[in-house]
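Example for tutorial group B:
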């Protein structure tokens, strides 16, 4: 009885405290929930800079973060990413928020010069002024680093800034992202991140002879730095058509997808420096948007080309790969990824699988590391092995990996 009375009194106190705050204060002191601390512009800017993966291009191998010097090779020569720490002489310490926004939105630097599109201002133009100011505020909190960078190492005439006028006329249209009122808030957020800060199409779309994105083939995959950036469209054969939005979000967060593939080369760096730091809500929004990209039927691969050395290639596979990836290329769930249907294996360009065979893969998510076989297999054997897995177990990629292509990739390691 006494216990019931105490329980009833406790309930009454709780109800009255909600209805008339402070009524039972002498008995039970209510503890207000701490309000979440508001982010400063610089804190927001740090998150946005991660979304834009600024650190990957603006940090040289072994160099100070954001101090520049990372080399970007293009068909027209090399460019070194500039120092964007707030050093006033070699960095952007003298840049105002207006200067920074003009660079992001218009592709024009503080001296009024056209910037080279290796800096993806054709994507960053979509970000809002508020977000640009926040990134600028964050960069100003970095430790200044004195590092003079000779950015322009292009061949003539591309080393002349005026040559960018033609490129801008053909391929650049400034404009802040405009939400589509017919789409959900999540879809619009994903579009803003993918098409703007994330600049995903910059790597995942083929480019023409002048370096402009082939708009009718956007997101259908492209070669970059000796790797093949995969098709991000909803194509069932070579794109993300068979992936769920949750699969895509998991891949962006961890570098590994339930479907069995793992992030390699430049994409592994993107995951490490950028997408793994994003909120689950933003990753889900990006996945929702990516799932809406229509397929490109021109990427449907044809029938596999029969390889006369197929029996030898099968032996190579069983000797070096079968114990982990299993007969039938099915892998072992959560331990070794499957090769059947793996986007890395069936990409239109076989460079990724060759690089994996040569150099191996570090641990990703739950998958254990894979050793490289560069010292064990010849160029011909690597080519045979790559062609075998690209055309087996229902994989319908073309068996077009050559020993010469392997040799070139081996030399670039």
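The residue assignment follows.
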């Amino acid at each position: 009885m006494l216990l019931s009375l105490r329980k009833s009194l406790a309930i009454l106190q709780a109800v009255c405290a909600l209805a008339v705050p402070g009524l039972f204060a002498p008995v039970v002191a209510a503890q207000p929930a701490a309000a979440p601390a508001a982010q400063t512009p610089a804190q927001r800017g740090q998150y946005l800079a991660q979304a834009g993966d600024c650190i990957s291009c603006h940090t040289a191998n072994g160099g100070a973060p954001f101090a520049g010097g990372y080399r970007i090779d293009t068909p027209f020569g090399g460019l070194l990413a500039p120092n964007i720490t707030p050093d006033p002489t070699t960095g952007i310490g003298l840049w105002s928020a207006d200067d920074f926004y003009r660079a992001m939105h218009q592709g024009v630097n503080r001296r009024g010069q056209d910037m080279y599109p290796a800096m993806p201002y054709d994507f960053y133009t979509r970000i809002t002024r508020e977000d640009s100011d926040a990134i600028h505020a964050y960069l100003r909190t970095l430790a200044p680093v004195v590092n003079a960078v000779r950015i322009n190492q292009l061949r003539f005439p591309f080393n002349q800034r005026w040559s960018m006028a033609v490129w801008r006329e053909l391929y650049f249209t400034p404009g802040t992202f405009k939400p589509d009122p017919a789409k959900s808030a999540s879809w619009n957020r994903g579009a803003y991140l993918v098409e703007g800060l994330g600049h995903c199409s910059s790597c995942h779309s083929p480019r023409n002879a002048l370096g402009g994105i082939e708009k009718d083939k956007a997101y259908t995959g492209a070669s970059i730095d000796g790797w093949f950036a995969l098709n991000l469209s909803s194509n069932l054969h070579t794109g993300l058509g068979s992936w769920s939005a949750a699969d895509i979000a998991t891949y962006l967060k961890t570098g590994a997808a339930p479907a069995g593939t793992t992030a390699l080369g430049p994409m592994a760096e993107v995951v490490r420096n950028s997408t793994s730091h994003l909120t689950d809500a933003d990753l889900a929004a990006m996945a929702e948007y990516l799932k809406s990209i229509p397929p490109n039927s021109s990427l449907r691969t044809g029938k596999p080309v029969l390889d006369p050395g197929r029996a030898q290639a099968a032996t190579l596979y069983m000797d070096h790969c079968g114990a982990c990836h299993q007969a039938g290329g099915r892998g072992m769930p959560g331990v070794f990824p499957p090769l059947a249907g793996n986007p890395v294996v069936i990409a239109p360009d076989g460079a990724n699988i060759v690089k994996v065979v040569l150099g191996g893969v570090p641990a990703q998510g739950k998958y254990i590391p894979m050793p490289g076989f560069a010292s064990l297999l010849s160029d011909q054997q690597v080519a045979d092995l790559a062609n075998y897995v690209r055309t087996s177990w229902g994989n319908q990629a073309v068996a077009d990996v050559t020993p010469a292509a392997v040799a070139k990739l081996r030399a670039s390691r």
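The first helix runs from residue 2 to 19. Compare this with the pattern of hydrophobic and polar residues in the output above.
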